[in-house]
Amino acid sequence: MENDPAADSGHTAIPLHLLRLVSQGLPVGGFSYSRGLEAAVHAGWVTDEAAARDWILGTLRANVAQLDGALFWRMATALEAGDRERFHAMNAWLSAGRESREFQREDRRQGEALLRLLADLDVPLAREEQGQSLTYAAAFAIACHHWRIAPEAALKGFLWVYVEGQVTAAIKLVPLGHTAGQRLLIEAATAIEEAATRARSLGDGGVGNLAPALAMASAWHETQYSRLFQS
Known about the structure:
The protein is mainly alpha-helical. The protein has one domain: Urease accessory protein UreF (Orthogonal Bundle), CATH 1.10.4190. Helices cover 68% and strands 0% of the residues. The protein is built from eleven helices and no strands. Helix 4 (49-80) runs antiparallel to helix 5 (84-96). The longest helix has 32 residues, at 49-80. It starts with a helix and ends in a 10-residue tail after the last helix.
């Protein structure tokens, strides 16, 4: 038997399929959405690197971990347990939690794009779910389940997608230099670990949005005169 370097070193192997799924090159259109950041920049709330860090990591903790992350965790573990009914119930909950038309449209379109891609890649569950209205988180959970990515790792990857997308948008919008973007991503690593722990630990009564400024920014963006992003 060949030696397993990962086992010898005491480290857990990185799920390479997860790296592919969190890549900005995944063709689901994520590059065209700022999730309210463009409106926050337009309003003068985010003007430099420090403000971008506070906005991105603040929304990660108060919004994404509390809602998207918590419900993604439930969907991923439901699929692992073979509980499709719970999976659909959590998807419906997440869809109902979107506070603006743009957030609803973004989630629906990215979910459709990822589900379509997975079906084209012959993922059986994605084929079965075609025609369903799935959130991006639900489609991502299906992808991770298919490629046997453990829910713990999948959750961190899911949160990384949000943070990296926000940093990429901030580089264009604030604007920030690429070195500043890297500083934000480095700092985000700890925040993502904390957010993942929070998302896994929440009871049903703690799931929800705690970011009214984000909801306001998203609503304002719908009528913003000049826009680079769709949300």
